[in-house]
Specification:
The structure holds two protein chains of two kinds. Chain A is mainly beta. Chain A is built from no helices and eleven strands. Helices cover 0% and strands 51% of the residues of chain B. Chain B has no helices and eleven strands. In chain B, a hairpin with a 5-residue loop joins strand 4 and strand 5. The chains are: A mainly beta, B mainly beta.
């Protein structure tokens, strides 16, 4: 079974500072990897996805993530944090990279706090 | 932008009662899912549904759970006899537009969730 581990349940950064949220995966096959964000009282919104194309993936709101097979990592970064980035971030891996039936396995989430 | 809507946003029920959580997926999507998140824990897959039948379910999805697409727009999760441990946020999701290419992963669109509290 595939899994993801998110290091750090809470991360605080100052506004304008680098955001780094860590995710490591475990997979016996080439994984499909995702980052989702959840703002208060909202659903899970896709930030970006890795599907075996380019290893550096750019997403919405200035976020990007790099797939590193040697490190089994898919860390999420943003060069300069904004107050609006405060949210819960979830890394996820897909067990079934086929059309349809995307069974996602999520990490435990990282709550990002931005310090003014 | 199309969205998945869920009702109710919060439901409180007594242990042993039946609960129905409702979802309206994106209209041209073909695949429907329920996930749940117990407070402080991971978001967990419950079930996927395609072509009016369950395509996959997790071990969490036991006989007390059922899903249904009673009409062309709603997708429901029924919990027959709720237990304390069913208290969680339940997320509905949909994916897969008709005619969408099969390259790459299929992206799920999630609803805002229904918080179920069992007393």
């Amino acid at each position: 079974a595939q899994s993801v581990t998110q290091l750090g349940s809470h991360v605080s950064v100052s506004e304008g500072a680098l955001v780094l949220l860590r995710c490591n995966y475990s997979s016996s096959v080439p994984p499909y990897l995702f980052w989702y964000v959840q703002y208060p009282n909202q659903g899970l919104q896709l930030l970006l996805k890795y599907t075996s194309a380019a290893t550096l993936v750019k997403g919405i709101n200035g976020f990007e993530a790099e797939f590193k097979k040697s490190e089994t990592s898919f860390h999420l970064t943003k060069p300069s944090a904004h107050m609006s980035d405060a949210a819960e971030y979830f890394c996820a891996v897909s067990d079934h990279p086929d059309f349809g039936n995307e069974k996602l396995t999520f990490g435990t989430g990282t709550r990002l706090t931005i310090i003014p | 932008e199309p969205e998945v809507t869920q009702t109710p946003s919060h439901q409180v029920t007594q242990m042993g009662q039946e609960v129905i959580l409702r979802c309206v997926p994106i209209s041209n999507h073909l695949y429907f899912y329920w996930y749940r998140q117990i407070l402080g824990q991971k978001v967990e897959f419950l079930v996927s549904f395609y072509n009016n039948e369950i395509s996959e379910k997790s071990e969490i999805f036991d006989d007390q759970f059922s899903v249904e697409r009673p009409d062309g727009s709603n997708f429901t999760l029924k919990i027959r006899s709720t237990k304390l441990e069913d208290s969680a946020m339940y997320f509905c999701a949909s994916s897969g537009s008709f005619g969408q290419g099969s390259t790459g992963a299929n992206v799920l669109t999630f609803g805002a969730g229904s918080r179920l509290t069992v007393l």
